[in-house]
Design brief:
This protein is an alpha+beta fold. It is 26% helix and 29% strand. The chain has 8 helices and 18 strands. The chain binds 2-OXO-4-methylpentanoic acid (COI). The site of 2-OXO-4-methylpentanoic acid (COI) has 6 residues, from loops. 2-OXO-4-methylpentanoic acid binds next to loops.
């Protein structure tokens, strides 16, 4: 369903919140935001109907949505989302990272989930509009940021199984510290053998809630086994690495080659793509191809695989110390973070926080 030009470009109205948090309350939250627990004073909403396309773009007070119990998202999970961050630079300005990539991925997800596409310009404008209202919520210092969550879902009250004719797009934002409670320390990963995340022709490459819902039970297994995340293998042969519950994965070989799984059923990560570019620019060979579980297991045993890390918007770059399964352990859960892992992480965050020049042209200013 394409709707890119119906009402483009959208203009936004603003209804200011009457319950804006006092500065002292906001500052207390920003001092220790955690991840995904606190939300800003406003949100963006844009309506879509089959008859009128995208319309009624607005910044409104943050608050509960009124949904009819028959809203189709509640029954058939026609929903997609994005994850991105706003970073405050030393001069106070507010920036985001490669938003056009998120816009394009949201468009691809929309196509797969039979939802209407929102243009890249309207998507980026929706972020700017929210920051215009809630810029004070972008924390400063350390590696804090304002996590931005655009999402879209079917809100037609109809129980027939077909793509909805009434859809809502929203953007909410949440001040964020580290995704993992331990901060940037190496994590152990649990290998899921009973469950797959997505199959061929399924929705694995779309950023849709169902993929995450199906990861929750294996994720519980991971927690029960002392692991921070779960790793999925391909659903047909259970042989190839796919992705973790909410992030992509890289192996680093001893000759400096980076290897990351290629699959039609995993997410095309913006952070993954950026790591690939940063590594290539440093002269590393990067292989984006099918990767077997044995390559990780045998590689660690032989010394050929020297570092492993996860990456994603929320996780940034997180070192992986070990992979655990029912009857095996690969790596050492107490191993320190890999050197290349941490230096790629540093370069990426230095760009995002404006500490080094943005030679790739990846940043977009949100507050001007
Ligand atoms: C992100 O990294 O932004 C994600 O969407 C992963 C997770 C928090 C769901």
């Amino acid at each position: 369903m394409t709707d890119l030009d119906s009402t483009f470009p959208l203009t936004f109205t603003l209804t200011p919140s009457e319950a804006v948090r006092a500065e002292v309350e906001r500052e207390a939250i920003l001092a220790d935001p955690g991840f995904g627990k606190h939300f800003t004073d406003h949100m963006v909403k844009i309506d879509w109907t089959l008859a009128d396309g995208w319309h009624d773009a607005a910044v409104i007070p943050y608050g509960p949505l009124l949904l009819d119990p028959a809203a189709s998202v509640l029954h058939y999970a026609q929903e997609i989302f994005e994850g991105m961050k706003a970073y405050r630079h030393a001069d106070g300005s507010i920036w985001t990272f490669r938003p056009e990539k998120n816009a394009e991925r949201l468009q691809r997800s929309a196509r797969r989930l039979a939802l209407p596409e929102l243009s890249t310009d309207d998507f980026v404008e929706s972020l700017k509009q929210l920051i215009a209202a809630d810029g004070a919520w972008v924390p400063e210092g350390g590696e804090t940021s304002l996590y931005i969550r655009p999402f879209m879902f079917a809100n037609e009250s109809f129980l027939g199984v077909r793509s909805a004719q009434k859809v809502g797009y929203y953007v909410i934002a949440s001040p964020a510290g580290a995704y993992f409670p331990g901060g940037v320390t190496p994590v152990s990963i649990w290998l899921s053998t009973d469950y797959a995340r997505a199959g061929r022709g399924g929705t694995g490459a779309a950023k849709t809630g169902g993929n995450y819902a199906s990861s929750l039970l294996p994720q519980e297994e991971a927690y029960a086994n002392g692991c921070a995340q779960v790793l999925f293998l391909d659903s047909s042969e259970a042989k190839y690495l796919e992705e973790l519950g909410g992030m992509n994965v890289f192996l680093v070989k001893k000759d400096g080659t980076l290897v990351t799984p290629e699959s039609s059923s995993i997410l095309d990560g913006v952070t993954r793509d950026s790591i690939i570019e940063l590594a290539k620019a440093r002269g590393h060979k990067v292989e984006h191809r099918k990767v077997t579980l044995d390559e990780w297991r045998d590689g660690v045993a032989s010394g050929d695989v020297v570092e492993v890390f996860a990456c994603g918007t929320a996780a940034v770059v997180t070192p992986i110390a070990a992979l655990k399964g029912d009857d095996f352990l690969v790596g050492d859960p107490d191993a320190p973070a890999g050197e290349l892992t941490m230096s790629l992480r540093q370069e990426l965050t230095d760009i995002q926080y404006g500490r080094i020049p943005d030679v790739h042209g990846w940043l977009t200013r949100l507050d001007a």
